[in-house]
Amino acid sequence: MKCLIFHKTLRNIRKRHGLTQEEFAKKLECTPEHIIALESNNEPVAFEFAVKLMDAFDLHGSPITELARAALMDSLQKWKILIDYGEMDKAAALKQELEKGARESYSPSAEIFYDLFSASYYWAINDMDSVREAMAALEQRTEGFSARHWYYYYRLVAALEYRAYRHKEALIAYKAAEKLDKENKMGNVGFYFGYGTCLVNMGFMERAVEYLDKAQHMSNWSKIYDGKPNRRYAASIDGMLAIALSKLGRCDEALAILDKRLPVELKRNSREHIGFTYYSYGVVYSRKRDYDKAIDNFDKALDYLSVSGKSYKSSLQYKAIALIESDNITEGLQCIDKGLSMPIDDITRALLEALKCSVTMNDPKSLEYMEDTVMPELLRCGQYLDAVKFFKILSTHYSDAKKFERALEYSNVALEVYEQLYEERIEGGLQ
User: Fold this and answer.
1) What is the predicted pLDDT for the residue at 1?
2) What is the full DSSP assignment across 85-107?
């Protein structure tokens, strides 16, 4: 009877125990030449040899044969599918078993996949410290990556860079993952959704709609887990797609998507998804300049969304803009102050402060603060689209005050910043 032990697996067992080929052969009661041949070629070995190997190194139950290794790889892929579908209880139940199997398999590929999917798991449960720890460990072993390893790795890099508002770096990573996806057909809902969302934030709306459309299609028709379509991202995809369409002036299409999505989420009673759908309504109505409906939907979003979430802060910010645009200045400033009183990241704080200063620019101190503190912070964080908006506000302010040299100065600065955004798009692989 013969069984197959992958030649790299055999070599890894030997090296992990710190043995030379001669010492390894002696322990297994065979010749060094036999070990050299087995480590050089993926050939079947006698069942007796496999038993000696398992007895000598206490490997009974460890997935060291190709058959057991294939079963482990299938389980790892199932784990990834559970994570992608948001089945976190089932994913958590598999985690400990898979970690033991991956560590005992003496397979670098299985270990790398386990670490990659662990990072995805921690990302899904929002344990970012564990994600970064896993990524730091992976960066030490990239020489062992296959194309599939690189695909998942670039996706994780892109997600981390996007979370840190480094959109150019995120786009570069998404482009690298996309190239591997086209070569190996590995794309899924989460990939296209993440890519599309990043494009929305870079202001590349037509490309964003293209990728979000793909994500929406896959969410509805990609039935991998127990024959179910992947609904985990459905509300987020429809919301981001509606926002992108509204920024292209296609507000009626955007509202039609949200009108279809809202009853589904109300029936499911997922508060975060309901809240995000109302938030998306608010953004679309703001683009239509129907500020009363926009404010009403932002209020509904704030009732449903978690106070600690990013969408809650964005709803406050956009509600403040809608209030200011509809000349409800006092309420708009109250909304901004509420946002500034909460724990928020540097970029959200800078955006809220810029918005507040843009309303109170007739106050010299406010104007000085916007010019000297807030705008440099937006540029430092790479928020070029937002910076351009506020530089244009400064230019208009000085033009109205008959200070035309300062107005021209800020018009030129806005142009320079927009050119910088263009350069980042090109560097990110977008034409």
Assistant:
1) 47
2) TT-HHHHHHHHHHHHHHHHHTT-
